[in-house]
From TrEMBL:
<protein>
    <submittedName>
        <fullName>MFS transporter</fullName>
    </submittedName>
</protein>
<dbReference type="InterPro" id="IPR005829">
    <property type="entry name" value="Sugar_transporter_CS"/>
</dbReference>
<feature type="transmembrane region" description="Helical">
    <location>
        <begin position="348"/>
        <end position="367"/>
    </location>
</feature>
<keyword id="KW-1003">Cell membrane</keyword>
<feature type="transmembrane region" description="Helical">
    <location>
        <begin position="174"/>
        <end position="194"/>
    </location>
</feature>
<dbReference type="InterPro" id="IPR011701">
    <property type="entry name" value="MFS"/>
</dbReference>
<comment type="similarity">
    <text>Belongs to the major facilitator superfamily.</text>
</comment>
<dbReference type="InterPro" id="IPR036259">
    <property type="entry name" value="MFS_trans_sf"/>
</dbReference>
<feature type="transmembrane region" description="Helical">
    <location>
        <begin position="86"/>
        <end position="105"/>
    </location>
</feature>
<keyword id="KW-0472">Membrane</keyword>
<feature type="transmembrane region" description="Helical">
    <location>
        <begin position="314"/>
        <end position="336"/>
    </location>
</feature>
<feature type="transmembrane region" description="Helical">
    <location>
        <begin position="58"/>
        <end position="77"/>
    </location>
</feature>
<dbReference type="InterPro" id="IPR020846">
    <property type="entry name" value="MFS_dom"/>
</dbReference>
<keyword id="KW-1133">Transmembrane helix</keyword>
<dbReference type="Pfam" id="PF07690">
    <property type="entry name" value="MFS_1"/>
</dbReference>
<feature type="transmembrane region" description="Helical">
    <location>
        <begin position="262"/>
        <end position="279"/>
    </location>
</feature>
<keyword id="KW-0812">Transmembrane</keyword>
């Protein structure tokens, strides 16, 4: 990271801050590559493990489900024992467990391995934003968070494209060995560049487990926080699973895309990457509430555009939807990070738990729509959830209005 970029971040300790931002952002890329690589390999998974492509989409839901539930435990460990050590151990364990995927002989075995990896993958999302909050303040926090979220989307794109390329040209075993080598190399680099903070961000209290759990309750009894958690989870429920089913749609008639060609739809995430990098300035200027409404409208319009069964309108629709989703996600992250004055990792973990639970539930939720109506059915199911986003945003605005009056 060069000095001009650091100056735009207003960082006064560029050495430490640059290493922190780069290491956590690269760790985010590793996490999301490993999380979403299977989404680009649906047909290969279906063929290798003798199941249907629709059933193969549940593999992502299972991994995300274990990740979501594990976030709460990881937040407890993070607040108690610090951020850096759990992150390093998670990268090491991920590098160790990836070769096990080579030897999975059934879809059930693969499902269990991915459930285990979901637990490992939970560490970095549970601690990264809290780590930024510990060591960066004010405008620095917003901009570093935006950079990190942009890295999330890049990791998602790269993971799916890698998955599609491997599914097109390699066997299952060869694909998993490639994934293992890439993960091990990237993890070693992250561990090397990750800085050691001068002061460890750990809890100095002697709170019991019940007292620690009350840290979660502190945020759960905050209605504004809960509504933000639901907004993020609902938006992700739609977005990530639309990308699963659109691949199956594009690989069927009349398109007949190859496995890799179908994964190119994930390049539409680049609109989300762009808006993530720009989100800090927009949030500061317009506020989260206006941007949430704009983002929901974008997701609604983008989903409707894909019903016109032409590749150009599908691509444009997904570009608009991804833009709206990542703007929603950036606003939610910013809101949670700035509102939480204590138990920061727990606040972030609760948001991400709801966020990923939405993704995990979205697969089973949209599956009947796909089975009955194919892609138009998926759009119908998505519109029902997006309509709920407007209701949640209205309720959040009302709560914030009451708080302002007091």
């Amino acid at each position: 990271m060069n000095n001009s970029f650091l100056s735009r971040l207003n960082i006064v300790n560029p050495g430490f801050s640059a290493s922190l931002i780069w290491s956590l952002s690269l760790a985010s890329v590793v996490v999301y590559v490993n999380l979403y690589v299977m989404q680009g390999m649906l047909l290969l998974i279906a063929e290798h493990f003798h199941t249907t492509p629709g059933h193969a989409t549940l593999l992502l839901s299972a991994t995300v489900f274990s990740l979501a539930l594990s976030l709460l435990l990881m937040a407890l460990l993070s607040d108690r024992f610090g951020r850096r050590r759990p992150i390093i151990w998670s990268l090491v364990l991920l590098a160790i467990t990836n070769p096990l995927l080579v030897y999975a002989t059934s879809f059930d075995q693969l499902m269990w391995l991915r459930l285990m990896q979901g637990i490992i993958l939970a560490v970095i999302p549970a601690t990264a934003m809290a780590c930024f909050k510990d060591h960066l303040t004010g405008d620095w926090l917003l901009k570093a968070g935006a950079f990190y979220i942009g890295a999330n989307s890049l990791g998602g794109i790269v993971g799916r494209l890698i998955g599609g390329a491997m599914a097109q040209h390699l066997t299952w075993q060869e694909s998993m060995w490639c994934l293992s080598l890439m993960t091990a190399a990237a993890s070693a680099l992250i561990i090397y560049i990750m800085p050691m903070p001068k002061t460890a961000a750990v809890s100095t209290s002697r709170d019991t487990l019940s007292a620690e759990v009350r840290g979660f309750w502190l945020h759960l009894k905050d209605p504004q926080m809960c509504l933000v958690y639901l907004i993020g989870g609902s938006a992700f429920m739609v977005m990530v699973n639309q990308f699963s089913f659109i691949q199956l749609h594009l690989m069927s008639a009349p398109y007949g895309f190859s496995r890799f060609e179908a994964t190119l739809i994930f390049l539409c995430y680049l609109s989300g990457t762009w808006v993530s990098f720009k989100s800090a300035k927009a949030i500061a200027r317009y506020g989260s509430h206006k941007l949430w409404r704009l983002a929901a409208i974008a997701m609604l319009v983008g989903s409707l555009m894909t019903l016109y069964d032409h590749i150009l309108t599908i691509l444009l629709g997904f570009l608009i939807s991804a833009w709206g989703f990542f703007l929603t996600h950036a606003c939610c992250n910013s809101y949670v990070a700035t509102r939480a004055v204590s138990h920061r990792a727990k606040a972030t973990a609760l948001y991400l738990c709801c966020y990923y639970l939405g993704a995990a539930l979205g697969g089973p939720y949209l599956m009947p729509f796909w089975q009955q109506g194919k892609w138009p059915g998926v759009v119908l199911g998505s519109l029902l959830v997006i309509s709920g986003l407007f209701v949640l945003q209205h309720l959040l605005a009302k709560y914030n209005g009451r708080a302002a009056e007091h």
